Amino acid sequence: VQLQASGGGLTQAGGSVRLSCTGSGFTLDDYAIGWFRQAPGKEREGVSCMSASGVVSYYADSVKGRFTISRDNANNMLYLQMNNLENEDTAVYYCALAGSRLYGGGAPIAHLCKNSVMDYWGGGTLVTVSS
User: Tens digits of per-residue pLDDT, 3-24?
Assistant: First the structure.
C-alpha cells in the first residue's frame, strides 16, 4: 500500500485549503480513513477519521465546524476540506488507512483517531497558516 497526501501550502488565517490523498495497492472501500497532523515540537494529533462505511466520523475538538473529511471510493481518494484556518493549524498533515483488523472488532473511530491506530501512513504535506 502506498499513500501520498497533497494540497498543502501557504495560506492566510481565515482561508481555506483542501488536502487530497491517493495511492495504490488498496481498495478504499475496505478501510477506515484518517487525517493526522504534526506541528513543530508537538506530538502527532488525530484531526479527523471516517469509518469504512462513511457513516461515522470523528473530529478533534480543535477543528470541529471548520474541517470536513470525505472519501471517493471509486477513485481511491481521501479529502480534508479545511476552512477558516488558524495559525494553530500549521502542521504537516498525513493521511492514513485502518483495515478491518483494527476497526472490525468494534473499535470506535474516535479511538483509532485519538490514538493514531492505523495500518498505513502516507507521506505528509505541509500546511502553513500565516497571520
Answer: 999 999 999 999 999 999 999 9
